[in-house]
Specification:
Blueprint lengths: L1 H6 L6 E4 L3 H11 L6 H8 L2 E4 L3 E4 L10 H8 L4 E7 L4 E5 L10 E5 L4 E4 L4 H10 L2 H4 L5 H8 L7 E6 L13 E6 H9 L1
Antiparallel strand pairs: 1-2, 2-3, 3-4, 4-5, 5-6, 6-7, 8-9
Length: about 190
Amino acid sequence: MELEKLLLNGKNRVEIIQPDLPCAAINAEYYQADSSTNFGLLVNESGGVIVNGVVRLLGSNRNPEYRDINMFNIKFGGAGFLILGDDIFGGIFAVNFGAFSENLGRVFYFAPDTLEWEDLELQLSGFFAWLKDGDLAQYYGQFSSEEYEKLRAVNVKFNEVLHILPPQWSAEFKTEPHDIRAIDINEYYRSCFQ
């Protein structure tokens, strides 16, 4: 598989979930995405991707344990962006199709510590390379390395996210103990987008 060549055998632990093939065919037709593009590889060759137990990319998967990229974007995507996936901390990765700036095709990140969309200044190929070999612990620098490792070890399902109090954007986040529990991802996205 070509997606494996892009994502596996790097510094980070990457798991590619097998796609639901009938679903992949429907999604490929819907997005006009063939395997000559990185997005097409994600849609056609995965039912989702998990990186270091932290980042989750959506793929073609109707299993309720996971999330289908098309169905999830119909539910929560917006005009001008496509949700690629998210992380266990509440961050969201999306491809810009005009919602954020003139930087079309770049990956943006909704940061739970600022509540802003940030331009990662990466196209999908660069984003995949970062997922494969980037320093994710450094990227999530709002957590100490000890807390990051502790949170990584929490059994957060693909369709869950960590609800962290005090919120990451608050001043209290840096000074008070954190109350952390896993919540349903749909509940989280509803709070972000509706």
